[in-house]
Design a protein that fits this description.
- The complex is a heterodimer of chains A (595) and B (586).
- A five-stranded mixed β-sheet of chain A has the order 10-9-13-11-12. In chain A, strands 2-1-3-4 form a four-stranded mixed β-sheet, covered by helices on one side. A four-stranded parallel β-sheet of chain A has the order 7-6-5-8, sandwiched between helices.
- Chain A has 595 residues and is of the alpha/beta class.
- Chain A has five domains: 92 residues, Glutaredoxin, CATH 3.40.30.10; 208 residues, NADH-ubiquinone oxidoreductase 51kDa subunit (Rossmann fold, 3-Layer(aba) Sandwich); 84 residues, Roll (Ubiquitin-like (UB roll)), CATH 3.10.20.600; 89 residues, de novo design (two linked rop proteins) (Up-down Bundle), CATH 1.20.1440; 56 residues, Alpha-Beta Plaits (2-Layer Sandwich).
- Chain A contains 24 helices and 17 strands.
- By secondary structure, chain B is α/β, with parallel strands linked by helices.
- The longest helix of chain B is centred in the middle third of the chain and has 20 residues.
- Chain B folds into three domains: 74 residues, Ubiquitin-like (UB roll), CATH 3.10.20; 102 residues, Alpha-Beta Plaits (2-Layer Sandwich); 358 residues, Rossmann fold (3-Layer(aba) Sandwich), CATH 3.40.50.1780.
- Chain B is 34% helix and 13% strand.
- The two termini of chain B are 31 Å apart.
- The model of chain B has no long low-confidence stretch (mean pLDDT 95).
- The radius of gyration of chain B is 25 Å and the shape is globular.
- Classes of the chains: A alpha/beta (595), B alpha/beta (586).
- The interface between A and B is large, with 35 and 38 residues.
């Protein structure tokens, strides 16, 4: 049994409501059960929330019981102290699903400013043990749906919640469900898109590894809502741990009759299988993903028809991203009204970001929609390390955009990010400081999307290659006049003419950096200069008068470009220099300048 | 359903719902530029040339894929759109050889035409270009990835119409390339050599293996006797390569032109077709009497034969042992005709002009050798023959028609219709009926097996016995028909299968579609077929076994149908071949 501390408010109002008497009864009750040595009783002065008194605050966990009556005391002792089950009915604070997380981690600053809804169980349950999930109201939403709600009511609830697809495009989830449900059955599919491919993103991976049952529960509810008996999780083979935990979770769910025939004694059948992706970024695009499951080469096809009408094997298919599915049980249990109270007018709920780059705290961050980038980077992320200056924040993964410092107060929601020239995407957020060259960053991301283009449509396959070539020559100091305009011309065409989301967003890193950092491009092209000192070919190393002639740079130079006699100023032969920067880092006298 | 209103470039039009923007626009006289689109293939939406603006849509939409809806406002020709389309075609050109003047498709290339009509007169984005070796391993079809613009027509055709699934895109991004699985050479793949990829390719990424150089060399070798034959459907289509509309019979002109090229003897493959029918009808009657398996399936289409060996070897015993008309003609040239001429068969150069690329493969088959020699030394396609005629400066359209040479120049109407789907069946029934019943078939035109339906079925009653026949064309349809046979082996007695859609008239070696035409266009195929049916109707001899040339052959050389000597020279056997093909069952 755990050790507890119970604090009883004995301010004037609570005493007026016989708080002291409650204390006596509590002591008596504890004594009766032999718990006296295990529970410490404290009194406090006025808590201040007098209208809800009298109060009992149970710790650890800060559970506040308000309006406590004498008859509540034995119940609190029995349930909370003996059985470790806080009583939602008596708690002042509504006992939201995610409160458990905050009872444990709430005083950690990094978490305190987040709002963990989809990640509520990650880190606090054993993902390989269904009992842990069940203990935290796991599958309660499913039970509610199957016994108390019609499929139409489920869809109405999801619609009303305002949930939008977390895969990046932000299509209203309830509408998608409704469209799929309207299609004639009986054969329909439910797919979980877990083909997380953005470099540096690990939202979906963590969600599955930390709490696989939530995803399954969401999918089963989805199956019930649209009239499908067949679910598929399409997940990258490069996530072996996530795959294993999903497999275990599916097995356990089957054993508990949460998957399979006649789920929970109803006449609803549903089962889930896992399909492994072979590591193609484009297979995160829904039509390509479907092709891949069918055994074909993962290439997107034109929409319409949308998967809702003609998806997997030509059947109506409901496909949602991992994070979207993870929201479903919460919406059912807490209600659409509660869910839609979080976020902005058009973007409801929370969003998980993989915060990375030049920021003090990196990791997974879940915040309400509408939180500003500044809050994420500074309040949760702890700002930029090393006293450096923030240059840009890149959101939306490799097809997202780079936003400058002046856009830090942009709220993270679908519309605001798009307006600023970036996208929500699946939730990558990379912070860059002054050591990042924006042209090089754009080149880096485009290199990724170009090599991951499926090669089907001309703009994406050929166009991004030409854009990449232009960027490559710019960072090599071979940029030509008109290159910026060429990039814009190609980029805008590719955005509007490509077949799928990959192509339509591939130019974003380039177009957004041109929009916000045009000057950097111009310096690269016109002055052959990289302001951040990143683009090697554009750097010049020279030795200043601070040189004492120690010869350390001469020794370290791999190509013998440095000459000079001891105790005299040395010189770098620019024709020989390969700009490796070794002299620069070796010199103890700050005598080498880089420009 | 009632009509809806769409607006194109500001003007309202009433159109049928349920069609794409492109379909609606086509009917209204707006020809939206296009490249990967093909009406017989699934919608790819890959090239993005056919993009249009639709009000309310953030991005351009591919008009080939996007359905019209009431009130839709479409713009097809704005300045921004024109530039986007132009840039897209320019991007294709940037990754394509810049050597139109030395390209086989110079003048027939869709990319070349598009580039002109898009107004590409200068270039903005040139950079790295792909560099892959061409695959010239196949006897029939050459694959040159450098000329490929990845429209995916060949991939779709090979999978959807032929169901061979030999081609697919491989690798990603800029490195994407169309190839057989694991990039194995075409000759070791499941390619049937049908050459339909050549027909639908907008550029020269697929071509027949060219043999014109070898033929010109032989024509200039005075020690050789140069013999040429040409197939029925060549005469029905070659005019198109000289700018004629489909539907002209150019038989006499082609005979004359081939003589001008330097051939000593010009024979008619139709003569060999009559021989094939006489043998095949006799074989069928034997099988009908219990000697051999039924249904009997025709073997004259070389693409079908290769497909059968790799995809359907369980049906080998059902395949007629008769060689194709080309190979029979070739065999007679190297034996009967050589003896008549009193020249050694080594001294005869036997050339065939075929509508077909797979015939190049067939001619090289060791099973079809005649006394250790190839029956046909070189096969050139209709296209290659047309080019040779042009190249030699022969005025094809104005040349005075000439007749074939003896002894393989006479043919019956049955031999003519071999060139179109259903023709072999009709020809075989005409002879089989008479050989079986001893009576004359009154209604000689078997309408049930004519036309372009995927699978045609017919019945003939011979002496009270009902003979059930089926005809199909295109290898995908063949697979469907054969599944029906596997399910019910007694369903048919006799089956005709042609590898190409439409039969030989739609062969992989026929002239490329003209400027405003579409490859595989059914109207063009119908006109070609009509040429053959008209020729048949005007023949006095319309049954193969009545062909005097054939009768003389039996009298002087072959003795009788299915005689040992006939078997030696006119029949063969096929074997299962690796790699085995797999047809995905839906």
């Amino acid at each position: 049994m755990m050790e507890y501390a119970i604090t009883i408010c004995e301010g004037p109002t609570c005493i007026g409501r016989h708080a002291d008497r409650l204390r006596a009864i509590l002591l008596e009750e504890l004594a009766k059960r032999g718990l006296k040595d295990h529970v410490r009783i404290n009194i406090s002065g006025c808590l201040g929330m007098c209208h809800k008194g009298p109060f009992l605050v149970v710790n650890p966990g800060y559970t506040i019981y308000g309006g406590v009556t004498e008859s509540d005391i034995p119940v609190i002792v029995e349930e909370h102290i003996v059985k470790d089950r806080p009583i939602a009915r008596l708690a002042v604070q509504e006992d939201h699903l995610f409160n458990r997380f905050y009872r444990i981690f709430g005083d950690v600053g990094f978490f305190g400013k987040q709002m963990r809804i989809t990640l509520r169980n990650c880190g606090i349950i054993d993902p390989e043990n269904i009992d842990d999930y069940l203990a935290l109201r796991g599958y309660e939403a499913l039970a509610k749906v199957l016994t108390e709600m019609t499929p139409q009511q489920v869809i109405a609830e999801v619609k009303q919640s305002g949930l939008r697809g977390r895969g990046g495009a932000g299509f209203p989830t309830g509408l998608k469900w409704e469209l799929t449900a309207k299609q004639p059955g009986p054969e329909k599919y439910v797919i979980c898109n877990a083909d997380e491919g953005d470099p540096g993103a690990f939202m979906d991976r963590s969600a599955i590894e930390g709490d696989p049952h939530t995803i399954l529960e969401g999918m089963i509810i989805g199956g019930y809502a649209i009239g499908s008996n067949h679910g598929i999780v399409y997940i990258r083979a490069e996530y072996p741990l996530a795959v294993r935990r999903l497999e275990i979770a599916i097995q356990q769910a089957r054993q508990h009759n949460l998957l399979g025939k006649g789920i929970l004694g109803t006449n609803f059948d549903f089962d889930i299988e896992i399909r492994l992706g072979a590591g193609a970024f484009v297979c995160g695009e829904e039509t390509a993903l479907i092709q891949s499951i069918e055994g074909a080469r993962g290439m997107p096809r034109p929409r319409p028809p949308f998967p809702a009408t003609s998806g997997l094997f030509g059947k109506p298919t409901l496909i949602n991203n991992v994070e979207t599915w993870a929201n479903i049980p919460v919406i059912i249990l807490e209600g659409a009204k509660w869910f839609s109270s979080i976020g902005t007018e058009t973007s409801k709920g929370t969003k998980v970001f993989a915060l990375a780059g030049c920021v003090v705290n990196t990791g997974l961050v879940e915040v309400p929609m509408g939180t500003t980038i500044r809050q994420v980077v500074y309040d949760i992320g702890g700002g930029i390390p090393g006293g450096k200056r923030l240059t840009a924040v890149q959101t939306g993964g490799p097809s997202g955009g780079c936003l400058p410092e002046s856009y830090l107060d942009t709220p993270v929601d679908y519309e605001s990010l798009a307006k600023a020239g970036s996208i929500m995407g699946s939730g990558g957020m990379i912070v860059m400081d002054e050591t990042a060259c924006m042209v090089d960053v754009a080149r880096f991301f485009l290199e990724f999307t170009q090599s991951e283009s499926c090669g089907k449509c001309t703009p994406c396959r050929e166009g991004t290659k030409r854009m990449l070539e232009i960027l490559e020559r710019i960072v090599q100091g071979k940029g030509r006049p008109g290159d910026i305009e060429r990039l814009e011309r190609l980029g805008n065409m590719i955005k509007k003419a490509s077949l799928c989301g990959l192509g339509q967003s591939a130019p974003n890193p380039v177009l957004s950096t041109i929009r916000h950092f045009r000057d950097e491009y111009q310096q690269h092209i016109e002055q052959k200069r990289c302001p951040a000192g990143v683009c090697k070919a554009l750097l010049t190393y020279t030795i200043t008068d601070a040189c004492v002639g120690c010869g350390a740079c001469k020794k370290v130079c791999p190509v013998g470009a440095i000459s000079g006699t001891k105790k005299e100023k040395h010189v770098i032969d620019q024709a020989k220099c390969i700009r490796c920067g070794q002299c620069y880092t070796t010199c103890k006298f700050n005598a080498i300048s880089r420009s | 359903m009632s009509k809806i209103t769409i607006y194109i470039n500001g003007k309202p039009y009433k159109v049928e719902p349920g069609q794409t923007i492109m379909q609606a626009a086509d009917k209204l006289g707006f020809h939206i530029p296009r490249l990967c689109y093909h009406p017989k293939l699934s919608i790819e939406g890959a090239c993005r040339v056919c993009i249009v603006e639709v009000e309310g849509m953030k991005n351009y939409v591919a008009s080939c894929a996007f359905p019209v809806s009431d009130g839709m406002k479409i713009r097809t020709n704005t300045l921004e759109l024109r530039q986007a389309r132009r840039d897209i075609v320019e991007l294709l050109l940037d990754n394509h050889p810049q050597d139109c003047h030395v390209c086989e498709r110079n003048g027939t290339c869709e990319l070349q035409r598009l580039s002109y009509s898009m107004g590409i007169r200068n270039r903005h984005f040139e950079g790295q270009r792909k560099d892959y070796p061409a695959d010239e391993s196949s006897e029939a079809v050459i694959r040159d990835p450098n000329r490929c613009i990845l429209c995916g027509r060949c991939v779709r055709l090979c999978s959807e119409i032929q169901q061979i699934h030999n081609l697919s895109q491989a690798y990603r991004g800029f490195k994407t390339v169309v190839m057989p699985a694991y990039n194995i050479p075409m000759k070791d793949s499941v390619c049937s050599c049908c050459g339909q990829c050549v027909n639908v390719c907008p550029t020269a990424a697929f071509l027949e293996k060219n043999h014109t150089k070898e033929v010109f060399a032989a024509l200039n070798d005075p020690s050789l006797v140069k013999v040429v034959q040409f197939a029925p459907s060549v005469r029905a289509a070659i005019g198109e390569a000289f700018g004629l509309e489909p539907g002209h019979n150019m038989e006499g002109q082609l005979v004359a032109a081939l003589r001008r090229l330097g051939f000593d003897y010009v024979f008619d493959t139709q003569s060999g077709a009559d021989l094939t029918i006489t043998e095949e009808a006799s074989e069928f009657l034997e099988r009908l009497q219990g000697k051999g398996k039924l249904p009997m399936i025709t073997s004259c289409s070389s693409a079908w034969m290769k497909c059968m060996e790799q995809f359907h070897p369980d049906l080998i015993d059902n395949i007629s042992t008769c060689k194709s008309p080309m190979s029979m003609t070739g065999a007679m040239v190297k034996t009967y005709f050589a003896r008549r001429l009193k020249v050694s068969p080594e001294k005869i150069c036997s050339v065939a002009v075929m509508c077909c690329t797979a015939k190049k493969y067939e001619a090289a088959r060791p099973e079809l050798m005649v006394d250790g020699l190839r029956a046909v030394d070189y096969v050139v396609t209709t296209r290659e023959a047309a080019w040779m005629i042009k190249s030699a400066g022969i005025d094809f359209l104005n040349i005075i028609p000439e007749p074939f040479d003896e002894p393989l120049g006479i043919s019956s109407g049955a031999g003519v219709i071999f060139g179109t789907t259903g023709g072999v069946m009709e020809a075989a029934l005409r002879s089989a009926y008479e050989l079986f019943t001893g009576q004359t078939l009154v209604d000689i035109e078997v309408q049930a097996v004519r036309g372009f339906e995927a699978i045609k079925e017919g019945k003939v009653v011979m002496d009270g016995q009902e003979i059930r026949v089926a005809v199909t064309h295109g290898l995908g349809n063949a697979s469907k028909l054969l599944d029906m046979v596997r399910e019910d082996p007694k369903r048919y007695h006799f089956i005709e299968i042609m590898g190409c859609p439409g039969g030989c008239i739609g062969g992989g070696g026929q002239p490329y579609a003209g400027v405003n035409a579409i490859p595989l266009d059914e109207d063009a195929l119908k006109k070609r077929a009509q040429v053959l049916y008209d020729l048949d109707r005007h023949r006095t001899i319309r049954r193969s076994h009545e062909n005097p040339a054939v009768q003389r052959l039996y009298k002087e050389f072959l003795q009788r149908p299915l005689s040992p000597i006939s078997h030696k020279y006119l029949h063969t056997h096929y074997k299962a071949k690796e790699p085995r093909g797999v047809i995905p069952r839906s």
